[in-house]
């Protein structure tokens, strides 16, 4: 037979567990509601308010994109996002760099582009923040500025097209970056000099997301173009 004190203790513990579970669920729901609100409230004013406490270099990049492309499609505490802006499929400005080569690699931009599997190793030879999303069939570049992203993306496509070797592309990229630092310009860093071809239909019956951080790009909340 259980004593009355033991029964009361067990009831107290059970109630405590129920209350903790309810509080956790409510907190998670409130967080989700907040994220949905932030994703929908995408005025310039909301964006400027969100980036007010960002590091100066991230804030400058965000302001440059706001001036050029207008209000973002998504606003979150850790990023601003635009979809199909200018020549880009997607533009992301992060509050802080993700696994950076440089701590200031906070501007990520992408285009739809089919890269044959045999060319994947060649792209890695270019470096400078360029990657290929095999599932989404997207070329992605991340650096500190849009000028650098234009430059690297143009050279990446030249590698894929066989117009330039990875070593030659890397050397030219380094040379143009030095010229940019001296205030000079190159056509390669002003705009995309190619037309992204239509992507071939995916063999997958559904879109597969491979994001490393599901809290950053939850498929339920993201407006990323498919």
Report on this model:
- The chain has a six-stranded antiparallel beta sheet.
- The protein has two domains: 40 residues; 184 residues, no CATH class.
- Helix 4 runs antiparallel to helix 5, helix 4 runs parallel beside helix 6 and helix 5 runs antiparallel to helix 6.
- The termini are far apart.
- The chain has 226 residues and is α+β, with helices and mostly antiparallel strands.
- The radius of gyration is 23 Å and the shape is elongated.
- Helices cover 42% and strands 13% of the residues.
- The protein contains six helices and six strands.
- About 17% of the residues have low confidence.
Summarize the structure.
The chain is 42% helix and 13% strand. The chain is α+β, with helices and mostly antiparallel strands.
List descriptors.
226 residues, alpha+beta
Helix and strand topology:
Elements (H helix, E strand, L loop, with lengths): L3 H37 L3 H7 L5 H14 L4 E3 L2 E5 L6 E5 L12 E6 L7 H7 L3 E4 L4 E6 L2 H15 L5 H16 L45
Antiparallel strand pairs: 1-2, 2-3, 3-4, 4-6, 5-6
Helix pairs in contact: 4-5, 4-6, 5-6
Mean pLDDT: 79
Name the shape in a single word: elongated
Q: Distance between termini?
A: 63 Å
N-to-C series of helices and strands: HHHEEEEHEEHH
Q: Sketch the major β-sheet.
A: 6 strands, antiparallel
Q: Which strand-content bin applies to the residues?
A: 5-15%
Low-confidence stretches: 26-39, 199-223
Helix count, per DSSP?
A: 6
Topology, number of strands: 6
Strand line-up in the sheet with most strands = 1-2-3-4-6-5
Count of distinct structural domains: 2
Gyration radius over CA:
23 Å
Q: Which structural category do the helix and sheet elements fall into?
A: alpha+beta
The portion of residues assigned to helices is 40-55%
């Amino acid at each position: 037979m259980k004593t009355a004190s033991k029964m009361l203790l067990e009831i107290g513990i059970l109630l405590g567990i129920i209350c903790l579970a309810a509080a956790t669920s409510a907190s998670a729901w409130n967080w989700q509601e907040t994220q949905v609100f932030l994703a929908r409230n995408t005025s310039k004013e909301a964006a400027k308010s969100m980036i007010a406490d960002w590091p100066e270099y991230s804030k400058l990049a965000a302001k440059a994109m706001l001036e050029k492309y207008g209000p973002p499609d998504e606003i979150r505490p850790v990023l601003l996002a635009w979809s199909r802006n200018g020549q880009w499929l997607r533009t992301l400005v992060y509050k802080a760099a993700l696994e950076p080569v440089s701590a200031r690699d906070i501007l990520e931009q992408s285009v739809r582009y089919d890269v044959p599997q045999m060319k994947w190793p060649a792209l890695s030879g270019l470096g400078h923040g360029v990657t290929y999303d095999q599932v989404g069939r997207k070329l992605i570049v991340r650096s500190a500025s849009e000028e650098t992203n234009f430059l690297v993306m143009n050279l990446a496509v030249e590698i894929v097209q066989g117009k330039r070797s990875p070593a030659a592309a890397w050397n030219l990229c380094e040379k143009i970056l030095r010229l940019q630092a001296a205030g000079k310009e190159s056509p390669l860093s002003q705009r995309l000099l190619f037309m992204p071809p239509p992507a071939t239909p995916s063999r997958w019956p559904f879109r597969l997301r491979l994001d490393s951080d599901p809290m950053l790009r939850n498929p339920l909340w993201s407006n990323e173009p498919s």
